[in-house]
Design a protein that fits this description.
324 residues, alpha/beta, 2-enoyl-CoA Hydratase, Chain A, domain 1, 2 domains, eight-stranded mixed beta sheet, 14 helices, globular
Length: 324
């Protein structure tokens, strides 16, 4: 019997249906055709309820899906999408930061430099990777990887999934803001194609530092924002429990950001979220990256830089009354 996912609060009706299915499935062999018919009926009802629920998710619900612990992480994309992966560590200045990982590999027919945030799954892994919140050495490692990519003419692919850069005293002491700014600058000045995929949370400058790409893609239920809904609620409403209201006001979903021109494409997820079928989600991401790299591969270095410049200058242009 397939392992059930971790259900979110708003998925309780689905959880109850799936529990009934599990209970009946255990008695299927001895229950006869009536039990089998009831199980089939409940499965159809569960699938329809899931489809109806995910067809009208609110921004705060998508935020919860984006943070789901079973969503594909960087390590999953590397394992199932990147061939011949060779990890490169260290920033050659201070040390290694496991919140951002990166190296060399192949995606389809494309030889690439790949990097991204890793949150970890178990408690020891989360502590090791600092929940995907990078310190300055993580961003300086990203810069080193981008320098390597340009030196050897390799496109860069980044997987973004972080609540934000680590705000601790040690990170600030080692130049967190400067490191983020330098990483963002390096993204913007690259003479090779860069594709960024928001796979879960795209939080603040910690995300932008490795997402200022020629093409920014988002998984359907990911979020991308300057601050978390909880943080925005604390500032705007003086009440963190109004995160739901903040999420709606901030326009953090893939659909909203596509309308605003902040992102370039939305990658569909399996019904019920990427955590319900990670393999299919990763496959969809791979196809999107492969197509984007093929399209960008037609441009030379000057064309790549011009394309990226125009992409960022165009954000929100069609919505502005001053655009003309």
């Amino acid at each position: 019997m397939a392992e059930r996912p971790t259900y979110l609060d708003f998925e309780k009706p689905i959880a109850e249906l799936d529990k009934k299915i599990d209970d009946l499935t255990r008695t299927m062999d001895s229950g006869g055709p009536n039990v089998r018919a009831e199980v089939a009926k409940l499965r159809e009802k569960s699938s329809k309820a899931l489809a109806d629920l995910y067809a009208k998710l609110e921004p705060w619900q998508r935020t919860q899906v984006a943070r789901h612990p079973e969503r594909p992480h960087y390590s999953d994309f590397i394992k199932h999408l990147v061939a011949d992966y060779c990890e490169l560590a260290g920033d050659r200045t201070f040390g290694e930061d496991a919140a951002i990982l990166g190296g060399l590999g192949r995606i389809g027919t494309h030889r690439v430099v790949v990097m991204g945030h890793e949150k970890g799954r178990t408690t020891p892994e989360r502590l090791k990777h600092n929940f995907g919140m990078a310190r300055p050495e993580g961003y300086r490692k990203a810069i080193r990887l981008m320098d390597l990519a340009e030196r050897f003419g390799l496109p860069v692919v980044s997987f973004v999934d972080t609540a934000g850069a680590y705000p601790g005293l040690d990170a600030e002491a080692r130049g967190q803001a400067e490191a983020i700014a330098r990483a963002t600058e390096r993204c913007l000045t690259l003479g090779v194609p860069m594709v960024a995929v928001i796979t879960g949370e795209g939080g603040s400058g910690g995300a932008v530092a490795i997402a200022s790409a020629n093409c920014v893609l988002m998984l359907e239920n990911s979020i991308y924002s300057v601050i978390s809904p909880e943080g925005a609620a604390s500032i705007l409403y003086r009440a963190s429990d109004r995160a739901k209201d903040a999420a709606a006001a901030m326009k953090i979903t893939a659909k909203d950001l596509s309308t605003l021109g902040v992102i370039d494409g939305i990658i569909p997820e399996p019904m019920g979220g990427a955590h319900r079928n990670p393999a299919l989600a990763i496959e969809s991401v791979g196809r999107a990256i492969d197509k984007t790299l093929f399209d960008l591969g037609r441009l030379d270095a000057d064309g790549i830089k011009a394309h990226r410049r125009e992409r960022f200058l165009a954000i929100g242009r069609t919505l502005s009354p001053l655009a003309e």
